[in-house]
Protein 1
Amino acid sequence: MKRYYLILLILLSILLSVGFNSEDKDKNTVKAGKKMQEFVIGISDFARKQKSDFIVIPQNGSELAFENSNPDKNLSTSYLKAIDGIAIEELFYDEKGKADNYRIENLKKLPKEKKIMVSEFVKNKDDIDKVIQLNQTVNFVPFIRTAENYHYHLIPENINLENANNITKLSDVQNFLYLINADDFDTKKQLIEAVANTNFDLVLIDLYYYSFSYTKAELELLKKKKNGGKRLVICYMNVGAAENWRNYWQPDWKLGNPKWLKKKYKGYDNEIYVEFWDANWQKLIYGNEESYTQKVINAGFDGVFLDNVEAYYNLYND
C-alpha cells in the first residue's frame, strides 16, 4: 500500500511540475511578445523620423498584431501603426501541401490597408495556379517558391499580375521578388542587371552582396522596372536571430557568449536566436549612426523586411 501511495505522489509531483513549467512558458512568451512589439515599434519610429514613408514589413509572428500576442484579443493599434504589412511563409501550402487555417483566419482580422505578402513553398508545380488563386481570393500577394528555389536564390520566370504601374507604397504591390541569396550571381553587377530586367512591383534583397553594400546609385537602377514603371526595393534584416556571417559578428561569439545569444536555431547552424530585448543587440539593430537600420536608410532602401520576429515565441517553445 505504501508503495502505491508513493507512486501516486511521484505522478502528482510530475503533473504539477509540468503544469507550472507550462504556465511559466506561457507567461514568458507573452512578455517576450510585448518586447518584440516594442522592438518593432522602436525600429519603425527611428526610421520614420528620418524618412516618413519608410516601409516596415515583419515576417511571420502574425499574433503580434494583437494585444498580448493573442488573436482572441483586440488588435494592437500601436504595433499596426508601426508596420505597413505582414509577410508570411507557407500559408495556404505548407511542406505537406496543407493550409494553415489558424494563421489564415488571424490575418483576415487585420485592417485591409495592411498588405499581406505570402511566400509559398510549392513542391508540386501542378499546384502553383491553385495556390496563387487561394491567396488572391483573400487579397494576399503570393510569391511562389519551388523546390529548386528553396534558399531564395532564383528569379522566377513568371510574374503574377505583371504591370507597368508606378509602385510608390506597399498597398500598390501586386507581386514581389524574394531574392535574399546571391549565390547564383558571380558579381553584384550581374545580380543588379538580372533584377533590373524584370517587372516585379517589389524587390526584396539583402543590404549586402556578400560583404559589399549596395549603393544609392545601384538601388536607383533596381527601383525601375524593365517596362519603365517605378517599384519598391526593400532590405532584408534579421531581428530575432544573430547570423555569424554578418559584419557585427565577433570572433569569440558563440551560444551563450554574449549571454543574449540564447538558443540554437534548428535547421540553421549559422544562426542563433537572441534575447532581442537586450540593449546590446538592439544597439546593433537601430537607434544610432552605426546601426543596421541606419545603414539601410543611408543606402537608399524604401524599407525593411524584419525576419524572425517570431523569436518571441521560439525562445520558449520547441
Note: The CA atoms of residues 15 and 105 lie 33 Å apart.
Protein 2
Amino acid sequence: MVSQFNKSKTMYPMKCGIRSILLCFLNLLGGWAQEHSLTLEEAFMLAENRSLDASIARNVFLNAFWQYRNYRAELLPNVVLEGTLPSLNRSLSTYQKEDGSYGFVDNNTLTENLSLSIQQNIPFTGGAFTVQSQLQRINQLDKKTTGYLSVPFSITLQQPLFHAKTLKWAMRIEPERYKEALKQYQVDMETVYLNVINYYFDLLLARVNLDIANVNFDNAVKLYDIAKGKRSLGLISQNEIYQLELNRVNAESGVISAQQTYENRMLTLRNYLRMESDDTFLPVTPDGFHHSDITTAQVMELANKNNPVTHHLNRRIMEAQMRIDQAKADRGFKADLYVSLGNTGSDLTLPTSYRNLQNREMASLGIRIPILDWGKGKGGVKLAESEKEVVARQVEQIQLNFEQNIVLSVSQFRNQARLVSLAHHADSIARLRYETAFQTFVMGTINVLDINSAQVERDNARRKYINELYLSWLCYYNLRQITLFDFINRTDVMHPTQNHK
C-alpha cells in the first residue's frame, strides 16, 4: 500500500510537467495572436470614435443642427435673382370684337424678364417686406419692334392679419429644440459609455469565470491524484474518490463552457468597438469609485442645468400653447394685406425706359369671415386646450420621475463604494479560506464536502466582487449621464461634435 501511494506521488510531478509544457505552448500561441490588455478607459475612446451607436448619435445631432440652421436662415434677408431667358410665344389666341363676336389674333413675341429682390420676414407680425427691381423686354417678331418695361425700385409689404405668427413662435421654440438636441447628443454619447461598461464587464466576468474554471480544474486534478494515494492507504472512502473524480470531470466541462462564453463575450465587445476580427485582448479589472461627497442637492442642481429633459419639457409646453394660438386664429376673421409702392417706365430702348418714370401703386385687402362652421372652430380651440392640459400633466409626471430617479441614483452610488469594499474583503477572505482548506485536505483533516464548500464560496466571492465593481461603474456613469458632469475632473461633460460647414 505504501508503494502504491509513493507511485501516485511520482506520477503527479510528471502530469504537472506535461501540463506546464502545454501551458507554455498556449502562451506561445497567444503571443503570435498579439493578445494585449485593454482598459475600460481605452474601450471608451474606441467606442466614441468607432461604434455605430456613436455614429448614429452624431448624425441625429447633425440633423438637428441643420434644422436649426434652416430656422436661422428664415430670420435673415433672402436675396433672389429670377428671370425668364427667353420666352417664345407663337400661337393664336381669342379676342372679342366690338360686335360681340370672337376672332383670333396671332401672337409672335419673344419675351425676356429679370428681377432682383431682397425679402425680409417680419417675425413679430408674420408678414414679409420686399425690395425689388424688375426689367422686361418684349420683341414683336412679326412687326420687328422691341419694347422695354422697367420697375427700377419697388417696396412691397405682404401682411396677414389675425393669423397665427408661426415665425414668432419659432423664435421661442427652435432655440430650445437645438439646446435639447445638443445636450441629448451628450446623453447619447454617455449611453455609448454605459453600453461599453455592460459589454466590458460581461467580458471581464467571463474571463474571471474562465480563470476560475482553469484553477478549479487544476485543483480537481491535484485533489483526485492525492485522494487516490489516500485511498490506497485506507484514509478516505471510495465514495469520496468518486466525488473527487466527478469534480474533476465537471471541472473540465466547466473549462470548455467558460471558454466558449469568453469567446462569445469577446466577439460582442469587439463588434461593438468595430475592431479587427483577429484582434484579441485581455480585459483589465478596474478600480471602484469612492466619491462619497456627491450629494442629492448637487446632482439635482446639475441635472436641472445640464440635462436635456429641462429643454424638452419647456419645448413641449410652448408647442402646446402654439397649437392653441393656431386654433384660435383659424376659427375667426382673417385678412391679407398687400401693398406695393414704386415707380415704372417703358420705351422702345433700354436707357429711355428709365426716364420719365411714373408712380407704381398696388394695394389689395383680402378677407375671410367664417359664417357657419357648425362649431368646428370652437371645437379646434377646445381640443388644443385639452391637449395642453394633457401635456402639462405629462410634463409634471416626467419631472417627478426624473427627480425620483436622481434621489435613487445618488443613494445607490453612495452605498456602492461600501459594497465594493466589503466584496473585496470577502473575496480575500474566501480565497484564504480555500487555500487553508486545500492544505488541510492534503493533510487529511477535512473531507471532500468541506473543500467543495470552500471552493464554491471562493468562486462566488470573486464573482460578487466583479459584479459590485460593475455596479460601481454603472452607477457613476449613470450619474454622469443624468447631470452631464464629470465629478472626477469637476467639469461639464462635453463630447466633441463634428465641424459643420
Note: The longest helix spans residues 376-443.
Protein 3
Amino acid sequence: MSEKKNQSKKDKKSVRKRPTVDEYFTAMAELVSTRSTCLRRQFGAVIVQNNHVISTGYNGAPKDMPHCIEIGCLRDDLGIPSGTQHEICRGVHSEQNAIIQCAIHGESTKNGTIYVTGFPCKICAKMIINSMIKRVVLSGHYSDTEGIDLLKQAGVEVIIMEKSAKTILDEVIALKASWQRTD
C-alpha cells in the first residue's frame, strides 16, 4: 500500500513543471508592461541580480508629467514611424525607467540581467552597456534592431526568447492552473 502511495507522489511531482528562470522573469516583465501609458507599444523591463528582482520599469511619461493616454501621442500626430526619431517622444523607455529606479534606490546593476518585452533601441542599449548589465533576455520584437548589434559588440550576452512575453505569461498561468489544488 505505501509503495503505491509513494509511486503516486512521484508521479505527481513529475507532472508539475515549473517555468524556467528566464520564463519566470520574462512573464514578470510582461506583467510590468501592463502599466505602460504609451499608445503605440507597451514595454516592460525587469532587472535581476542573483535571481532577485532589483527593479522594474515600463514605458511612459516622466514622473508627474501627463501621459500619452491622457493627452495623445505627438509621434502619431506627426506621422513618425516606429523606431525612428526617439527624441520626439515624451515617453521614457522601460529599460531606462528600470535603470533609473536602480539609481534612485541605490541598487547596482553591475553584472545583472535585464528582461525586456521587446528589442532595446540604440539609446537603451547604450544605457544597458554603461550600466554594466551583462545579460539581456528579450521577448517580442521591435523595428529598431541596431540596439542588439551594439549590445553584442560590447560583449553583452543577448538571449532572444522563442516565444513572446505574453505567450510565456499565458503559458505560466495555464501551467499553474493545471497543477494548483482547489481544495
Note: The CA atoms of residues 176 and 182 lie 12 Å apart.
